[in-house]
Amino acid sequence: MFFQSWSGLLRVLVVGTLAYVALVLLLRLSGKRTLAKLNAFDLIVTVALGSTLATVLLNNSVALAEGVLAFALLAGLQFVVAWLSVRSERFDALVKSEPSLLLHRGRFLDATLRAQRVTRDEVLAALRASGVADPARALAVVLETDGTLSVIPREAGGAEEAEGAPGSLAGLLPGAPARD
């Protein structure tokens, strides 16, 4: 169906505008962290906010006040999770994953690749995207907690080879090899 009624279009314009303004104001009040992509919970909040906005816009049975309350609830829950994560290492470990080392000093870590369900081709694509054509020219590739792949290139002159030197992975990642 292409058209139902003028009142339906008017509702979308009015409720859509008001819901959008309410969401923008709520996001400004709740801070940058609400839409950060730092972990799975942050992603859930971002997707849920978008889904809620779409529902408020297109579902006549959902009132604007209900949608605004849903926005506030989602932002509030995200705030509580972030607040607890900062204050409790146990809670942080419960809700967040650790970064995973996928490639170290040009060598693929196949067990970690399998465990994280990442292919060598995906790591090679991340290397190319960062300007490193040869895996041997990378100190590391890390699967971050937000699902992105970070490439740490080798320093010119081999400074990364010394344990604890700038560019060394020792102490940066749990379980990172300190030296070969």
UniProtKB/TrEMBL annotation:
The chain crosses the membrane at residues 6-27, 39-58, 64-86. Coiled coil: none annotated. It is a multi-pass membrane protein. It is found in: Cell membrane. The keyword Transmembrane applies. Belongs to the UPF0702 family. It comes from Teichococcus rhizosphaerae. Residues 87-156 form the YetF C-terminal domain. InterPro entries: DUF421, UPF0702_alpha/beta_dom_sf, YetF_N. PANTHER family: UPF0702 TRANSMEMBRANE PROTEIN YCAP. Pfam families: DUF421, YetF_N. This is DUF421 domain-containing protein. The keyword Transmembrane applies. Residues 164-180 have a biased composition (Low complexity). Residues 157-180 are annotated as: Disordered. Keywords: Cell membrane, Membrane, Transmembrane, Transmembrane helix. GO terms for cellular component: plasma membrane. Residues 17-83 form the YetF-like N-terminal transmembrane domain.
